[in-house]
Q: What sequence folds into this?
């Protein structure tokens, strides 16, 4: 029983103890080892994922063959490639476990059915996407406004646990820095 | 009567001719002249806007005092600063008409009431935000992956009418280019 998902749903809508097991039936639990892929570039993006434990990163492979991380999701975050998911088409991203991770996975058709059976969950997902979109508007601003050093300092200030948790080479990739330059910035900001 | 909003709602949920006038009552029509502000940096972001006619841009002012455009919205697009809107706090962005524009404006509290009276509109807004978030995930990828020239070429290929419509200095700002450099790229891409 995923008390965690129930708790998260209940932040937005009221879900009774009787209703929750029927909701959970639409989900599948997927356990991933560190660096195991949940979904791969070129595959149709069938599912949406709720992180129960651990951390997922989303990346694409650039022209030079380098993995470019664009996003992370930790506990209580939803993640998928939403364009590929919405149109049920091939994804340009891979989703991979950064550490040992457990997600609740829901298939596109299952989510459609779930929302028909429990229309009040439309409100929950409206909230989830509204906030995700809000955060992405701010992130866009930072990408225009901040130098890479400022981006790191901002990130470190607002998400300190995250900066400690994620391997430095992935954090560097996400921030668009080389690991060496990130290491320099870190030393400077500590001293 | 905004047939346009009705048509847009009906793409996702069924709205009857009887229901629509009650929905429209929650909105206010705002007409803007070219370069008129809809909302300003430092003001609490009270409202969410549906563009009926025209074009709105969203910008912040960077350290050098330069307006940096981060987003545009044309007909049938929703726009606001969603972080400031969600938490009813001061916005870091200005929303301004690029040309003569008409928007339907809905106040935060009015939208809450609207969604209580017509819960099926949760599905509509869930769709709106899901797609907006999906588009922003792809845009983030382009910002990592593309050179500024590639960004322009991609934009020109996928949104040709838009590139024709928006003043070049605003398009340059949005793409993070100088107007001169944009002009060079355009000449090169035409020849």
A:
């Amino acid at each position: 029983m995923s008390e965690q998902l129930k708790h998260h749903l209940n932040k937005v809508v009221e879900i009774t103890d009787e209703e929750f097991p029927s909701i959970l039936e639409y989900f599948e639990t997927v356990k991933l080892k560190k660096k195991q892929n949940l979904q791969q570039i070129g595959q149709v993006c069938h599912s949406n994922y709720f992180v129960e434990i651990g951390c997922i990163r989303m990346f694409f492979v650039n022209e030079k063959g380098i993995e470019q991380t664009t996003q992370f999701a930790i506990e209580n975050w939803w993640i998928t490639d939403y364009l590929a998911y919405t149109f049920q088409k091939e994804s340009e991203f891979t989703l991979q476990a950064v550490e040992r991770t457990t997600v609740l996975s829901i298939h596109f058709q299952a989510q459609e059915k779930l929302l028909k059976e429990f229309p009040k969950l439309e409100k929950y997902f409206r909230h989830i996407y509204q906030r995700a979109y809000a955060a992405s508007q701010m992130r866009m601003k930072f990408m225009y406004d901040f130098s890479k050093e400022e981006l790191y300092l901002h990130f470190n200030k607002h998400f300190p646990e995250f900066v400690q948790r994620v391997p430095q080479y992935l954090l560097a990739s996400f921030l668009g820095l080389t690991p060496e330059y990130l290491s320099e910035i870190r030393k400077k900001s500590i001293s």
